[in-house]
Amino acid sequence: MAVERTLSIIKPDAVAKNVIGEIYSRFEKAGLKVVGSRMVHLSQEKAEGFYAEHKERPFFKDLVAFMTSGPVVVSVLEGENAVAHHRDLMGATNPADAAAGTIRADFAQTIDENAVHGSDSPTSAAREVSYFFEEADVCPRTR
Ligand code: RTP
Ligand code: MG
């Protein structure tokens, strides 16, 4: 299987709950390596650009308001099959449907405030990683 990179965002609700470390711990225990990491309070423009694919959806305005409501942690995760592996760890978009033991089942209450984001394909991952990180700010592990 190929080593991939994916973009993770710990959303404002999870940052506010003070569970950054617990979420990172799940990535690490699952064998995903953090190779880029930054905390940022998104501007409206940055959040709208990130979610541009959802611009016409009814939830877009609320999504942008939520994502700009407090700081987030954006990370680049690296590992075998990282895109799908990370989404498995996150669980379903709606925490009510998320499998037991997933991040959203354990840390999210609603579909609007669902703790984490993860790229949904290698193509999205490439766009999303470069949306937040210069190549020089990603640090591949040599050991
Ligand atoms: P994400 O992009 O955050 O990793 O989540 P996802 O792929 O599971 O969900 P996506 O369809 O990309 O939607 C992006 C975010 O928009 C919010 N959403 N709300 N009220 C709704 O019906 C609804 N649907 C989506 C969620 O916060 C979702 O994570
Ligand atoms: Mg998505």
From TrEMBL:
It comes from the Bacteria. Its EC number is 2.7.4.6. GO terms for biological process: CTP biosynthetic process; GTP biosynthetic process; UTP biosynthetic process. Keywords: ATP-binding, Cytoplasm, Kinase, Magnesium, Metal-binding, Nucleotide metabolism, Nucleotide-binding, Phosphoprotein, Transferase. InterPro entries: NDK-like_dom (IPR034907), NDK-like_dom_sf (IPR036850), Nucleoside_diP_kinase (IPR001564), Nucleoside_diP_kinase_AS (IPR023005). Its cofactor is Mg(2+). The active site is at H117 (pros-phosphohistidine intermediate). It is found in: Cytoplasm. Residues 3-140 form the Nucleoside diphosphate kinase-like domain. Pfam families: NDK. GO terms for cellular component: cytoplasm. GO terms for molecular function: ATP binding; metal ion binding; nucleoside diphosphate kinase activity. Major role in the synthesis of nucleoside triphosphates other than ATP. The ATP gamma phosphate is transferred to the NDP beta phosphate via a ping-pong mechanism, using a phosphorylated active-site intermediate. PANTHER family: NUCLEOSIDE DIPHOSPHATE KINASE, NUCLEOSIDE DIPHOSPHATE KINASE DDB_G0292928-RELATED. Homotetramer. HAMAP family: NDP_kinase. This is Nucleoside diphosphate kinase. The lineage of its organism: Bacteria, Pseudomonadati, Pseudomonadota, Gammaproteobacteria, Oceanospirillales. The gene is ndk.
